[in-house]
Amino acid sequence: MISPDDIRDQRFLVALRGYDRDEVGAFLEDVASQVANLEARIKELETLLSKERNRASGPVPDTAIAAAEPTDTRELLKVLGEETTRILVTAEESARMIEHKADERAREATEQARRSARDETERASRQAAKLIADAERRRDAIAAVIRDLEAQRDRFVEHLTTAVQTVAVVSDDLGSAGDSADEPPAESAPAATSLDVPVETADAPATTAEDLLVTEAVDTVPARRDASLDALRDDMARKLRRGLQDLQNTVLEGIRTGGSSSSLDDLLPREPVLDDLGIQGQAFLTQGYEAGLIDAAAEVDGDAPKQLVDGARLPAASATLRAVLAHEVVSALRATLRAGLEAGEPETSLSERVGEVFRDLKGPVLDGLVGTHIDRIYAHGLLDGWQELGVKHIRWQVGDELRCPEQRCRSNAEEGPVELGIDFPSGDRVPPAHQGCTCVIVPETS
């Protein structure tokens, strides 16, 4: 039979995620104490039984004693068995409870570690995205400054070249006047009777009528375009800027209503609202196309078409403008609002994010989009007008903007005359070939 000392001295192996040794030791100590108390109680009962036997009067038959002892022993063993069973059941339940608590603590610690790692990863991603966005904004600002400086440099070089040439011409004229002062007047040369007669000089090749017409077109097309589109560009930008302001107010109202608990989909603009932007720009695109038709006729001394040449041209241009505007608005809002919502930012911070996005959209982003789309539809008007008037070939004339990516515009100009309706080497049929491009197409008269 196991003794209380055996229970106290019992030791168990230590295993990963096992029982708490202090709790097990305390439990064994309790069990040993209870067993010791039971043994002491047994001895006490045996002593009382012996005394009662001695006090009993008269001899007690041996058969009675023999019969009584087994009964008392069985009862005693029954009591001990029940108590031991209760102790063992209690021990097992305590062990299960200890193991359950250990598992719960392990799971909580693991989940907490996962949450912390996820939070750190998201925080690092947001910080990286912000740094990238800031770097891109700084890069764009620096690029804009560089473009302005280069444009100023080019204009200065152009003015300086013109001034040098003017001084040279004046000097030659003064020298010629001095040399001819002592000579008799020469006979008057006969007047040319046709533009096809070459005009020869000692220092320059012959200039034909074709050269004169091309030069005139190069000089007049940019001037006609700017005269037709400058006010139209401003009006279109002003109209779309008001539309973007209305869109900004709608997004801010959604933030005020839902706050930081809003979902990203609830705050992003809906399709009908975005469609309104394209509709607002369509009227200006129509005017730009009609201006191209008129200027095309004026350029070749013809009559402008009475109606649109290509019925699908304007709907396609309007759809493209709407798609580009929607992409700029939704992509910028999605990026900044997702970061703010994931960070749990308050309503004021979310509103500041929206304001920053729309400041960019209503400023340089909108100006660039308006200029690109209105100039392109105007160029298509030129193209369609010349096609109706029988022009077969056109040229690509490089504008004042000299920073064409990969020299695309210069390659187009170097290609020379291209059949009307055929793409230039860059893959563009009409300018602008890139945002900020000021190139034009001119009719080829040969």
Structure report:
The protein has nine helices and three strands. It is mostly helical and 446 residues long. The protein has two domains: 4-55 and 62-119; 210-444, no CATH class. Strands 2-1-3 form a three-stranded antiparallel beta sheet. Mean pLDDT is 76; it is low at 64-71 and 179-218.
Give the helices and strands, then pairings.
Layout (H helix, E strand, L loop, with lengths): L3 H6 L11 H35 L6 H118 L29 H50 L5 H4 L3 H29 L13 H30 L4 H42 L4 E5 L10 H7 L3 E2 L20 E5 L2
Antiparallel strand pairs: 1-2, 1-3
Helix pairs in contact: 2-3, 4-6, 4-8, 6-7, 6-8, 7-8
Question: What are the key terms here?
Answer:
single chain; mainly alpha; 2 domains; 3-stranded antiparallel sheet
Condensed summary:
The protein has nine helices and three strands. With about 450 residues, the chain is mostly helical. It has two domains: about 5-55 and about 60-120; about 210-445, no CATH class.
- Gyration radius, rounded: 49 Å
The dominant shape is: rod-shaped
How many H/I helical runs? 9
Average pLDDT works out at 76
Tell how many strands the DSSP assignment holds.
3
Helices and strands, in order, run as HHHHHHHHEHEE
Widest β-sheet, arrangement of strands: 2-1-3
Helicity range: over 70%
State the major sheet.
3 strands, antiparallel
Range of strand content: under 5%
Q: Uncertain runs with pLDDT below 50, 5 residues or more?
A: 64-71, 179-218
Spatial separation of the terminal alpha carbons: 124 Å
Please, how many domains? 2
Class per helix and strand makeup: mainly alpha
